[in-house]
């Protein structure tokens, strides 16, 4: 029954998109996200309320954000775009926009103004880093450590990661040069505002790798955001980097003996892109959904479920308490002044220019 | 056990070093778990050598020594590692008590033919140990998953509570999560829908192809066979990418039908191979006899040939079912989020959030697989008994 319905629906969609659907908006959406706690925060904060307000609409999640760029390329080549809205990090959004795979949009037309009347382009401000990127949250990559494995002097500075004498044991780092190279230079005595100048030179890259070399034997490399929380819970590592929301979940929701090390956390952005070339009716539905899902209240609601900062300035005052634990969320936000004393913003231009080159060097160094 | 060879006690210079070597291995395992491999290695060897000497030379009573050793190790293990330590210690004690006397009394020689050289005896037992070790390496990862799926925490970790056998350390919440989460239930429904349909298609087409290709007059038999079997040989990712672009163009990508067809294509080679193998033993004069008695080819197939090649068809079908049920690469390409199957859900779940719900699902799937294989085996035995093919 259901199968035939779906078969019919999909064949009719592909054969004659405009013919069958009488109304202007499609009723099925495929949303692409990261899975886990982040996706459930999206589900709770705006997908479920939207579906409640529009009972005819169904939304399906696809946890493919990690390979969104490759999959969108393939879909484009096959001429068969099956996704309606894709959650990606800002750097992927920039790439997709450059390749023409994501749709450019006008912020003030597509997105709702803030609840104080600020136009969307001002409310999001600088966070709209690409013409295709619809920002949702600010997150950070930072360190967590086992409180029961560091003795009486818990680490307070990023350079404690490189201090094997005071904090012996394994640490986990992401298996890519981004962030690790910056942290290494910072702890090798490079001033914060010169990090990218130094990293732009071959000598600087060698220097960063040499610093990483000092802890290489004690590093477990991770590639999925869930790895470090698991390793911390196992007591397999003393400290490790991951996304701050994952650490929040380990500390507050799972009650593990873990604490945050906010020093030199690296800010990054995550948001939606709309794939280029959607049929009219699906585009209309997605636009309607995005307008709802990125308004001031909805973005503030998301912070009830996960400790990522809303991308709208007007949402910040509305951030309240955790939906289940009832604790105040503001002190757990990466943007909280107490946590953001020393921060880095992911440098999109630098990494866009140098990524391939430094990636190759980093991988060669890893294999040594 | 029939004694083939008269046995006698062995010299100290033989059994003590062997027991010490086994002790060193056990000590290595225990020591590594504590982070001190070398100490465990040496300690295990020395301790077991002394124990072997004491219980064989100073005490006469075999039964008492073995019980005493088991009890001693049990208590010792309990003091060091609590209840699990006690269990492991007790098992070690029982094993080494038995092992020492087995060697000391020369019992290992009793069940092998008398003409074997010492080297052949060593190989006789070495071979069994190797087989056992392979078995353990294959099975342990599957068994470890099962207790972990009852973890009360959201990590793949044996918590201290679990190791103490504290009921608070265990919970069914991951099973509850599986049965209440709409994502998992949708994935289960998709798998249960897709796998049988793909199996049905594979079995029908595969059996027909195998029968056709076993006819001697079919031209290019080898070439056709090679093409049909190619999905099994070509790397899955290549087939998947090819199917993705082809199915996208004809509107099958992201539909149930597309996934079913793709999985059927993957399952067909298994059916062809197993059915072809059973057809080798099929006596073609039976079909001629049936034709002689007036049966048309279709009747002949269903009444004569099919019952005889059924075991091959069933095992081919089982392989096809498991292929579809376990498959993740092709469905990631050919399916869309609406056709998310269990392996797909497990794959994303493992990558994005390491949740023991995956272990709960794995445990359920293992139980289902065991049940399925048992049922098929019982049915096979029953049908053989009914047909009088087996003496059982």
TrEMBL record, chain A:
It holds the Pfam family SBP_bac_8. Residues 1-22 form the signal peptide. It comes from the Bacteria. The keyword Signal applies. The keyword Transmembrane helix does not apply. Keywords: Signal. This is Extracellular solute-binding protein. It comes from Sedimentitalea arenosa.
From TrEMBL, chain B:
Belongs to the binding-protein-dependent transport system permease family. It is a multi-pass membrane protein. Gene3D superfamilies: MetI-like. This is ABC transporter permease. The lineage of its organism: Bacteria, Pseudomonadati, Pseudomonadota, Alphaproteobacteria, Rhodobacterales. Residues 188-376 form the ABC transmembrane type-1 domain. InterPro entries: MetI-like (IPR000515), MetI-like_sf (IPR035906). One of its GO terms (biological process) is transmembrane transport. It comes from Sedimentitalea arenosa. Coiled coil: none annotated. The chain crosses the membrane at residues 12-31, 38-59, 71-104, 125-150, 192-211, 223-247, 259-282, 308-334, 354-379. Keywords: Cell inner membrane, Cell membrane, Membrane, Transmembrane, Transmembrane helix, Transport. Pfam families: BPD_transp_1. One of its GO terms (cellular component) is plasma membrane. It is found in: Cell inner membrane; Cell membrane.
């Amino acid at each position: 029954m259901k199968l035939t319905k779906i078969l019919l629906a999909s064949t009719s969609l592909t054969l004659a998109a405009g013919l069958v659907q009488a109304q202007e908006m499609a009723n099925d959406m495929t949303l692409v996200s990261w899975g886990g706690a982040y996706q459930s925060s999206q589900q709770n904060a705006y997908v479920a309320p939207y579906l409640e307000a529009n009972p005819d609409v169904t939304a399906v999640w696809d946890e493919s954000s990690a390979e969104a760029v490759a999959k969108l390329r393939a879909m484009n080549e096959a001429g068969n775009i099956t996704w309606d809205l894709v959650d990606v990090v800002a750097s992927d959004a920039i790439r997709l926009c450059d390749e023409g795979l994501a749709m450019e949009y006008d912020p003030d037309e597509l997105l709702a103004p803030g609840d104080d009347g600020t136009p969307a382009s001002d409310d999001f401000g600088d966070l709209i880093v690409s013409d295709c990127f619809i920002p949702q949250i600010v997150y950070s990559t930072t360190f967590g450590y086992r409180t029961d494995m560091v003795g009486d002097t818990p680490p307070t500075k990023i350079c404690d990661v490189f201090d094997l004498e005071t904090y012996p044991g394994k640490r986990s780092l992401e298996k890519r040069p981004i962030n690790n190279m910056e942290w290494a230079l910072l702890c090798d005595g490079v001033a914060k505002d010169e990090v990218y100048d130094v990293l732009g030179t071959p000598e600087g890259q060698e220097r960063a790798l040499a610093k990483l070399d000092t802890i290489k034997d004690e590093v477990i490399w991770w590639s999925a955001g869930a790895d470090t929380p698991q390793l911390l819970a196992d007591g397999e590592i003393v400290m490790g980097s991951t996304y701050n929301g994952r650490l929040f979940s380990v500390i507050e929701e799972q009650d593990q003996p873990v604490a945050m090390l906010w020093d030199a956390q690296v800010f990054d952005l995550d948001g939606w892109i709309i794939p280029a070339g959607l049929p009219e009716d699906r585009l209309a539905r997605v636009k309607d959904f995005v307008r709802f899902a990125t308004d001031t209240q909805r973005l503030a609601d998301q912070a009830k479920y996960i400790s990522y900062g809303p991308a709208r300035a007007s949402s910040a005052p509305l951030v309240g308490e955790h939906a289940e634990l009832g604790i105040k969320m503001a002190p757990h936000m990466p943007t909280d002044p107490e946590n953001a004393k020393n921060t880095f913003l992911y440098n999109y231009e630098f990494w866009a220019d140098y990524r391939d080159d430094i990636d190759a060097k980093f991988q060669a160094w890893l294999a040594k | 056990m029939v004694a083939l060879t008269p046995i006698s006690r062995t010299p100290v210079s033989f059994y003590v070093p062997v027991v010490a070597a086994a002790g060193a291995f056990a000590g290595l395992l225990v020591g590594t778990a504590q982070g001190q491999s070398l100490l465990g290695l040496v300690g295990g060897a020395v301790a077991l050598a002394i124990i072997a000497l004491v219980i064989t030379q100073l005490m006469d009573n075999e039964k008492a020594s073995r019980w005493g050793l088991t009890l001693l190790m049990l208590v010792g293990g309990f003091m060091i590692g609590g209840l699990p330590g006690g269990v492991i210690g007790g098992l070690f004690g029982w094993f080494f008590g038995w092992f020492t006397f087995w060697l000391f009394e020369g019992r290992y020689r009793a069940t092998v033919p008398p003409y074997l050289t010492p080297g052949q005896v060593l190989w006789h037992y070495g071979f069994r140990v190797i087989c056992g070790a392979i078995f353990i390496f294959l099975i342990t990862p599957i068994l470890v998953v099962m207790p972990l799926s009852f973890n009360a925490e959201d990590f793949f970790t044996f918590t201290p509570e679990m190791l103490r056998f504290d009921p608070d350390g265990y919970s069914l919440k991951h099973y509850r999560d599986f049965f209440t989460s709409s994502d998992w239930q949708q994935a289960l429904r998709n798998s249960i829908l897709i796998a049988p349909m793909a199996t049905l298609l594979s079995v029908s087409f595969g059996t027909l192809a195998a029968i056709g290709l076993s006819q001697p007059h079919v031209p290019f038999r080898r070439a056709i066979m090679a093409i049909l079997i190619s999905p099994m040989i070509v790397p899955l990712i290549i087939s998947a990418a090819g199917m993705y672009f082809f199915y996208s163009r004809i509107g099958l990508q992201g539909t149930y039908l597309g996934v079913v067809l793709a999985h059927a294509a993957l399952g067909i080679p298994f059916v062809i191979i197993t059915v072809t193998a059973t057809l080798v033993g099929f006596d073609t004069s039976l079909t001629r006899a049936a034709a002689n008695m007036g049966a048309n080819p279709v009747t002949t197939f269903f009444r004569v040939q099919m019952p005889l090649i059924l075991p091959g068809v069933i095992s081919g079908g089982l392989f096809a079912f498991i292929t579809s049920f376990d498959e993740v690469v092709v469905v990631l390409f050919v399916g869309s989020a609406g056709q998310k199957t269990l392996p797909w859900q497990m794959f994303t779940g493992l990558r994005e959030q390491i949740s023991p719900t995956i272990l709960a699902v794995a445990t359920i799937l293992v139980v289902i697989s065991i049940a399925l294989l048992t049922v098929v085996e019982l049915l096979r035995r029953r049908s053989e008994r009914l047909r009088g093919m087996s003496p059982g």
